[in-house]
Design a protein that fits this description.
mainly beta; Jelly Rolls; eleven-stranded mixed sheet; 5 helices; binds 2-acetamido-2-deoxy-beta-D-glucopyranose; glycoprotein
Length: 368
């Protein structure tokens, strides 16, 4: 239930993108909105899905309604916090709160009956996106979000929507459990909980790529203040494309890893230059050839590039400039550079928002 709210917002953002025909104006409208709600240097978070490409302080506050209808009686069990968000949400909406099977004490909310899963339990998020060669550092300056009343916060190394993640679960160097750090006032994130909890609760998180997410669920009351800083990343692998850069580079730096470039809009992807695999091979399609080093272009409805419908798979070396345009008419457009570690692979890519004229040339179309 709760996540559905985010879905609707996600599509609203997509529709906004369409209307604006470019991400740039969309970003500006966010900035304008933020200016309007800025107190000194602090951005006030007023929307459930708050997308920003700005550094600075962000604060959220929720006061209890005048007539409290909450019947939450949560008991924040230690390891139960390790539950994934979706797990928690299912638990809430089911209100059948038996053991969760994960072995830990579940975050139990009982006695509520029909109350669970209502608007009060909505999961919201502050979605940060920086330049491709930056990572995001988030400092939790204040956390007044109590597990006791069903509240929870999480730092996500990447973005999450409807249970899908960018970078994809299979593509990220860290396992998902390590990428999602849950916490609340009474409970430090796992990486801090072994040591003495910092008295002032100053927790600092860093993302591995240019996007990060701070999720929060505050059913009754609570507040938080976070501070975001963008730091330089000398070897970017996964990139959330904002559509502002003239081109994007995907590189593996000789490593056995997969790097992805994702844009949250239907796009025309153009591969400008390619160096993937053995030196003596020209650029060719390699869907059918068994090849450990390749560039995949495609699209999907969700966030995870690993689950995309492929438009093409190409290998080889272009020498000079080439133009291989492909229209990907999906909510999410992705390019994946798959590398065995045997070669220094790289690809230069441009992405622009698809326009009406590009519809005819669609290489991939998703239900939207
Ligand atoms: C990269 O992706 C390929 C194919 O999608 C997969 O077989 C491989 O295990 C991945 N490698 C890494 C290091 O994640």
């Amino acid at each position: 239930m709760a996540m559905r709210g985010v879905t609707v917002l996600f599509f609203q953002v997509l529709i906004l993108c369409f209307q604006a025909k470019a991400w740039n104006p969309v970003r500006r409208s966010y900035e304008v909105k933020q200016e309007a709600t800025t107190l000194g240097n602090v951005h006030l978070i007023t929307e459930c899905m708050h997308v920003t490409s700005e550094e600075g302080e962000f604060s959220f506050i929720k006061l209890p309604p005048t007539r409290s209808t909450s019947s939450w009686k949560g008991t924040g069990g230690g390891r139960g916090l390790g539950e994934s968000w979706s797990g928690l949400i299912e638990m809430e909406s089911d209100t059948m709160l038996a053991g969760d099977g994960s072995g830990g004490e579940p975050l139990v909310a009982n006695g509520g009956g029909g109350g669970g899963g209502g608007p009060a339990a909505t999961v919201c998020g502050v979605y940060f996106v920086a330049d491709p060669d930056q990572i995001i550092e988030i400092t939790m300056k204040q956390v007044n979000v109590e597990c006791r009343t069903g509240g929870l916060m999480a730092f996500v190394d990447g973005w999450e929507l409807n249970g899908q993640y960018f970078p994809g679960e299979q593509d990220h160097e860290q396992r998902l459990e390590r990428r999602v750090q849950e916490f609340c006032s009474e409970q430090a994130p796992p990486q801090w909980s072994t040591k003495a909890v910092t008295p002032a609760k100053v927790w600092v998180f860093r993302s591995s790529q240019n996007c990060a997410l701070v999720q929060y669920r505050i059913p009754v009351r609570g507040s938080f203040v976070i501070s975001a800083r963008f730091l330089h990343n000398s070897k970017p692998c996964h990139i959330m494309a904002e559509g502002l850069a003239p081109y994007y580079m995907l590189r593996n730096y000789g490593q056995p890893k997969n790097c992805t470039l994702t844009a949250l809009f239907p796009a025309v992807v153009s591969v400008i230059a390619l160096e993937v695999g053995p030196v003596d091979k020209n650029v060719h399609y390699c869907e059918r050839v068994r090849s450990d080093d390749k560039l995949e272009v495609g699209g999907s409805t969700g966030l995870d590039p690993h689950q995309m419908i492929k438009a093409s798979t190409i290998c080889g070396r272009s020498g000079g400039r080439m133009d291989l345009d492909q229209s990907i008419l999906c909510g999410t457009t992705s390019v994946r550079l798959v590398s065995s570690g045997q070669y220094n692979n790289q690809a230069m890519i441009t992405i622009r928002m698809a326009e009406e004229a590009d519809l005819r040339l669609a290489a991939v179309m998703c239900a939207m």
